[in-house]
Amino acid sequence: MKDTIKGFLDLVKERNGHEPEFLQAVEEVAETVIPYIVQHDIYYGKNILLRMVEPERLISFRVCWVDDSGEIQVNRGYRIQMNSAIGPYKGGLRFHPTVNASILKFLAFEQVFKNSLTTLPMGGGKGGSDFDPKGKSDNEIMRFCHAFMSELFRHIGPNTDIPAGDIGVGQREIGFLFGMYRKMRNEFTGVLTGKGMTWGGSLIRPEATGYGTVYFAENMLKTKNDNFKGKTVVISGSGNVAQYAAEKSLQLGAKVVTLSDSSGYIFDEDGIDEEKLKFVMQLKNEKRGRISEYVKEYPNAKFTKGKTPWHEICDIALPCATQNELHEDDANALLSNGCICVSEGANMPSTKEAITAFHKAKILFAPGKASNAGGVATSGLEMTQNSLRYKWTREEVDNKLKDIMADIHKSCIEYGTEEDGYIDYVKGANIAGFVKVADAMLAQGIV
Ligand code: NDP
């Protein structure tokens, strides 16, 4: 088996050797899915996984825009249309200076499995730009978004490809992107998700990824007759996913002690309660400030520059910032400090070595493609409401989100339960996600 996996990975490396994040994501899937393929004749010998690692389409384009001082700026825009076997491409747009083809291909590849897990008919895609929204004025953000969409619009559509937000792309950016799409196409359709509530957005969409990550963790804890009540929770990030993961943790009776951004993390021993979280939301979403400003408002808390929060004592860890932010030594620190559950809100935040440490210790560990799927699932619900020209209540959407997270959890148990009863959620999510897409690809022939 090892040789088969190595042979496959060597081939993928040969073609994508300069794309480390993409290779990391493929390796994680190959290690769990190839043994399954080998055991199942319907998939064996059809090069299904080899087909799945090749994007159906990779679009790269120039984005020119004028900044506030009148300088012409040039950025690079992308859309990776990875797999549309079970539905139109669906996945977020990321605006961050680190964006490149490798990062977007890893995200698009993960998205294919994640979207399949949601049980909704959505293929996988991802896109974005190396544009850095930090420090830009609202007018600069608008000009960039408009320039970006003036090319992207020809490649997307409500039945073709439906982008959403990701790092650096929130409701403000979705608004500007939607405005230009509507103008270019002269149509009002559900082509983007994460829209504002008065123009087609779904209730609970802003909360969905963070809430879903916590719902998934609740499902995992339930297998041990446990829950969030009274638990200490460590969270990284302070953006969309982190904020709502914190909010739901609080609602379920836990104490949240950390949040972070790329400059460092804050630790609040007294707990980040609802009032403090409201301050963080205003600070990050409206003032676009830095998390270090928290300690000016709450001097009992401490800010640690340039570090991540994984060495703080906790029961539950929710990595909600970015890829590869939790390394092996962080995993070991979490384990020796008594952490029993890790649910990934971000995409691929734990390195391969960190995941191995969690698995060895047999703690509850959920990979992002399962635990953060609530965001895209609720985007799917937004698309449904747009098509129906209807709006569900907050409670209706939240209940659907809870049901979807419970269903994803069930699928992980079905495909990931080991002989000794330990649930390998990585294996479960990869195989469950693979089966649905592979079946559709087989049914549709070699296209
Ligand atoms: P936001 O832009 O709202 O927030 C991102 C947060 O992560 C910020 O606090 C940011 O800090 C921090 N961060 C970003 N890059 C780094 C870095 N290199 N090192 C340390 N911290 C960093 O994004 P989201 O909350 O939407 O996304 C967070 C993660 O969740 C991403 O991995 C994304 O792919 C994933 N995700 C998001 C979904 C969604 O619905 N939004 C859906 C599913 C997954 P700073 O402000 O300093 O950059």
Descriptive key words:
447 residues; alpha/beta; Rossmann fold; 3 domains; 7-stranded mixed β-sheet; 5-stranded mixed β-sheet; 12 strands; 48% helix; 15% strand; globular; binds NADPH dihydro-nicotinamide-adenine-dinucleotide phosphate
Descriptive report:
It is a single chain. The chain starts with a helix and ends with a helix. The chain contains 16 helices and twelve strands. The chain has three domains: 2-52, no CATH class; 57-189, Rossmann fold; 208-371, NAD(P)-binding Rossmann-like Domain (Rossmann fold, 3-Layer(aba) Sandwich), CATH 3.40.50.720. A seven-stranded mixed beta sheet has the order 9-8-7-6-10-11-12, sandwiched between helices. It has a five-stranded mixed beta sheet with strand order 1-2-4-3-5. A hairpin with a 2-residue loop joins strand 7 (255-261) and strand 8. It has 447 residues and is α/β, with parallel strands linked by helices. The chain binds NADPH dihydro-nicotinamide-adenine-dinucleotide phosphate. NADPH dihydro-nicotinamide-adenine-dinucleotide phosphate binds at residues 165-168, 170, 209, 237-242, 261-263, 320-322, 325, 345-347, 372, 375. NADPH dihydro-nicotinamide-adenine-dinucleotide phosphate (NDP) binds at residues 165-168, 170, 209, 237-242, 261-263, 320-322, 325, 345-347, 372, 375.
